[in-house]
Design brief:
Largest sheet: 7 strands, mixed
CATH superfamily: Alpha/Beta hydrolase fold, catalytic domain
Strand order of the largest sheet: 1-3-2-4-5-8-9
Shape: globular
Distance between the termini: 53 Å
């Protein structure tokens, strides 16, 4: 059974900090992760007085499973989320990792007032169609191999809780969700979309020698194309920057918000 009908689903969320506090941040995880994997960044921002919401994307964690996993579908879901204290004002900051960065990009381009700023962690903005088969094979194979001990061995900078949360999240994601997320997006080319975002956009790219998804070439092109865009490479960090260097992510979030017009 297949369907091309696009409709939003109600996402499961976790919250840290006072619900009516400002600034308000929304955190969007990557493929095969979940809201709980943001625990370090979320707790640190809440300690700074922020209201923080992290969502399970469709097909992940406790959120509904569905037939469609196009980026437009993912974006439609997150666009229904608003800060609990003042839903009209929108998010002060959206932080998205990997797939979550792509989803945030599409959502912010569709609705310019949804977020005042985006902080994207090694976002996946380009997936050539010729790579789809190999990517699906690799990602599905990883689902059966993830356990905390193996994750810590492969990622020595992670906290033990990061490994536990990631392994738990991966067990809740099916090969179907992984495959459809890749194949429902035949033209995964988001550079032009990112260049059209009016909100402030800051990208933290992984170290290019650690298998970064976001390249310096992409960053240079987008910096030239958009006055609201800039990027930096986090030396030594692999793809999951929020696990390798959560302190850097929190510091960047605070600095990005402090630099927004009208923020005291």
């Amino acid at each position: 059974m297949t369907s091309n009908a696009a409709y939003p689903v109600q996402l499961s969320t976790l919250r840290w900090g006072p619900p009516d506090a400002r600034p308000a941040a929304l955190l969007l995880h990557g493929l095969t992760s979940s809201a709980g994997t943001w625990w370090q960044v979320a707790a640190a921002l809440a300690a700074e007085g922020w209201s923080v919401t992290a969502a399970d994307l469709r097909g992940h964690g406790a959120s509904p499973r569905t037939l469609g996993y196009a980026l437009d579908d993912y974006a439609g879901d997150v666009l229904t989320l608003a800060p609990p204290g003042n839903p009209v004002r929108g998010w002060d900051l959206v932080i998205g990792h990997s797939l979550g960065g792509a989803v945030a990009t599409v959502a912010a381009a569709r609705h310019h007032h949804w977020a005042r700023a985006l902080l994207l962690l090694d976002p996946v903005l380009d997936v050539p169609e010729e790579r789809h088969d190999a990517l699906v094979t690799d990602l599905v194979a990883e689902l059966g191999e993830l356990d905390p001990a193996a994750l810590l061995a492969a990622n020595p900078r992670w906290h033990t809780e990061d490994a536990t949360q990631k392994a738990t999240a991966a067990r809740l994601v099916s090969p179907y969700v992984v495959e459809r997320t890749v194949r429902d997006n035949e033209r995964w080319q988001l550079e032009p979309v990112a260049a059209g975002i009016r909100s402030r956009v800051r990208v933290l790219a992984a170290d290019q020698e650690q298998g970064a998804s976001f390249t310096t070439a992409e960053g240079e092109r987008l910096s030239a194309a958009s006055p609201t865009f800039d990027f930096a490479v986090v030396d030594g960090a692999a793809h999951s920057i929020q696990r390798d260097d959560p302190e850097r992510v929190v510091a960047e979030a605070l600095a990005l918000h402090d630099g927004l017009p009208g923020v005291l």
